[in-house]
Amino acid sequence: MNPIHKVDVAILGAGTAGMAAYRAAAAVTDRVVLIEAEAYGTTCARVGCMPSKLLIAAADAAHGAQHARAFGVDAPDVRVDGARVMERVRAERDRFVGFVVDTVETFPVHHRLLGRATFLDDHRLQVGDPSDGGCVVEARSIVLATGSRSRVLPFLEAAGDRLIVNDDVFDWTELPESVAVFGPGVIGLELGQALHRLGVRVRMFGVGGFVGPLSDPEVRETARSVLNAEFPLLPDATVRHVERVADGVRVTWELDGELRSEVFAHVLAATGRTPNLDRLGLENTTLVLDKRRVPVYDTETMQAGTSHIFLAGDANADLPVLHEAADEGRIAGENAARFPNVLPGQRRSPLSVVFTDPNIAMIGQSWDQVKDRKPIVGRVSFDDQGRARVMRQNRGRLHVYADRVTGRLLGAEMVAPRAEHLAHLLAWSHQQQLTIDQMLAMPFYHPVIEEGLRTALRDASAQLVASQATATQSNSTNR
Ligand SMILES: Cc1cc2nc3c(=O)[nH]c(=O)nc-3n(C[C@H](O)[C@H](O)[C@H](O)COP(=O)(O)OP(=O)(O)OC[C@H]3O[C@@H](n4cnc5c(N)ncnc54)[C@H](O)[C@@H]3O)c2cc1C
After folding, report:
1. Cα–Cα distance between 428 and 159 in angstroms, integer?
2. Which residues are CB-neighbours of 143 under 8 A, at least 6 positions away?
3. Separation CA 169–CA 162 (nearest Å)
4. What is the model's pLDDT at position 10?
5. What pLDDT, on the 0 to 100 scale, is given for residue 1?
6. What distance, in Å, lies between the first and last C-alpha atoms of the chain?
7. What is the pLDDT of residue 147?
């Protein structure tokens, strides 16, 4: 018989969400346990945000050196040393992971449990192997913060041992000769462009025309064309065949009625992520699941139905970015500890960034979410933007969406130089519920990329004036 640990709060997963939930719950009760199935260190530090940005940093250094000539600066014989690139990626990654592990080790030992957790019923969890030192945890409330994993589409399995996911890339000791990237979403675009800049032959395949998370057709088309000018990006490819051959994987696709094929050293599956909920034994609980098999939950309290179970981070299949995982973890941990007194937590304006060059970013509501309101769309192209041209980064487009009546900023989509920073200004303005004119009243230095944003805001402002004049005129005509 496995020993039974009785606690107030059990948290499944010691990732970003789980650690935030743990801190919040441990502030209220000592009867808390943080359960981790694998190694400590988080997805972000081990195989996510940090190693991907390390690879991109190396790629940008290579790209800068290769293009220095256009500024009159000769950097002859730029050579990428794949072994040294990957050595730095792994060393810095290990350093970030080390900080996380050090933090977890400051949590009291009696608060930590290593082993995979599965539900026996609504309140009881089996942790680890029942026949090999496992235990049962009985919890008054439970936080599911089990994260997500790469989803691999079945047809890619034909690539056999040459099929990889993002996790594998960061353990490379050398750069491969070539990679076919499937999925031009956030992860595919970031890794694909970085590998291309590091000298790896890359071709990227997608379906449905998607480019990152963008939903605005004009912005998406600009992103496609800018990125496709740098490496082959087929966002709506008809892939006919994937086959393991002697020297790699042959991919055959159809373009303009013609079959083409190329052999790649690896196939990278970046075709989305699946929440780690399917192996939790949710069928042993009374939780109500939606059609994706995710428990129905409230995005302000993180509570599943009216139950004592809370969901946080990538596990809930919504807003899979780090700062949201941390917020959701905190809210879930607080509510789990004070259950049944559940309160809504503070959520922020949506903000997401893809670290391609140029960056892709979205804030507030997307075009798909606002288009039916027929918003004002303020536009700017960065093709002739002063500072962007100075830096030879004059590519991209930014659209801001404003409410036709109140003039409030509703959202924005962009592919633009340094959009990671523009997106923050816009997200902060969105959260403050500023109008376009209030944003234009802020200072803009010269010459900066933000002047491009000002052009889009001015465009929106002029349209707002015209739209309001038309509305006033039609009101007085109707009187
Ligand atoms: C390549 C890549 C790049 C990214 N880049 C960015 C970026 O630049 N910016 C950004 O904001 N976000 C980025 N993200 C997303 C970000 O990493 C995630 O949103 C975040 O890490 C999710 O945290 P989490 O706590 O939900 O999950 P995780 O950190 O994955 O934690 C979940 C934990 O649960 C454990 N677990 C699973 N099942 C069980 C079980 N049954 N019992 C016990 N433990 C279990 C897992 O082992 C894991 O440790 C990126 C992701 C990837 C993959």
Report:
1. 44
2. 9, 10, 11, 12, 17, 18, 21, 25, 302, 309, 310, 311, 312, 329, 332, 333, 336
3. 12
4. 98
5. 59
6. 82
7. 98
Q: Where does ligand 1 bind, in terms of residues with CB under 6 Å? A: 12-18, 35-38, 42-44, 47-49, 52, 116-117, 145-147, 166, 187, 276, 280, 313-315, 320-323, 325
Q: Residue 472: its pLDDT value, please?
A: 83
Q: Please state, in angstroms and rounded to a whole number, the distance separating the CA atoms of residues 426 and 438.
A: 12
Going from the first residue of the chain to its last (479 residues), give the mean pLDDT of each consecutive group of 10, the final group possibly shorter.
89 98 98 98 98 98 97 94 98 98 98 98 96 93 98 97 97 98 98 98 96 98 97 94 97 94 98 96 97 96 98 96 98 98 98 98 98 98 98 98 97 98 98 98 98 98 94 77
The answer to whether the beta carbons of residues 355 and 383 sit under 8 Å apart is no
Mutate to test the pocket of ligand 1, among 53, 137, 321 (most ligand atoms within 8 A of CB): 321
Neighbours of 454 (CB within 10 A): 17
What's the rounded Cα separation, in Å, for the pair 53 and 57?
Answer: 6
Predicted pLDDT of residue 458: 98
Mutational pocket test of ligand 1: of 38, 40, 43, the residue with most ligand atoms within 8 Å of the beta carbon: 43
- Number of residues written out for the chain: 479
Give the phi and the psi of residue 135 in degrees, each rounded to 5: -145, 170
Contact criterion met (CB below 8 Å) for 219 and 415:
yes
Coil, helix or strand for 446? coil
